[in-house]
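To whoever is on call:

I kicked off a structure prediction for a single chain this morning and the downstream step that reads the tokens threw a length-mismatch warning. I double-checked the sequence; it's 122 residues and nothing unusual in it as far as I can see. Pasting both halves so you can look.
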Amino acid sequence: MPFVVLTTNIPDNKLPSDLNQSITQFLAGLFNKPAPDFSVIVDAGKRFTIGGTSEPAVMLVIKSIGNYNETANIKYAKEISEFVQKNVGVGNDRCVIHFFPFETSEVSRFGTTIQEYRKNKK
């Protein structure tokens, strides 16, 4: 159940119209999780600075169950930064990524927690 929010100061009309879908497919492959489990928000045109400048920038917050560790995060950072460069045109010096782990008891879908949903699905 990854939740992804890409915030940028780039106007929405300057971003690919299928960016949400591209992010979903890319991260589904990278994290080895089903694409239907992803929720993606692209929040464009924000007043956003890095280092005090308003040059094009991206902040990604990626919340996920069971993906993150010190070694994996290094791989993810590299591949996600390359994806952002290719699809948004922002280099890794202007791309901040926050990997945010959470537990199955801390998120809900289908009217229950994911923990309970998985128990009952078996």
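Update from on-call: the warning came from a stale cache, not from the record. Cleared it. Sanity check on the structure: The first helix runs from residue 19 to 31.
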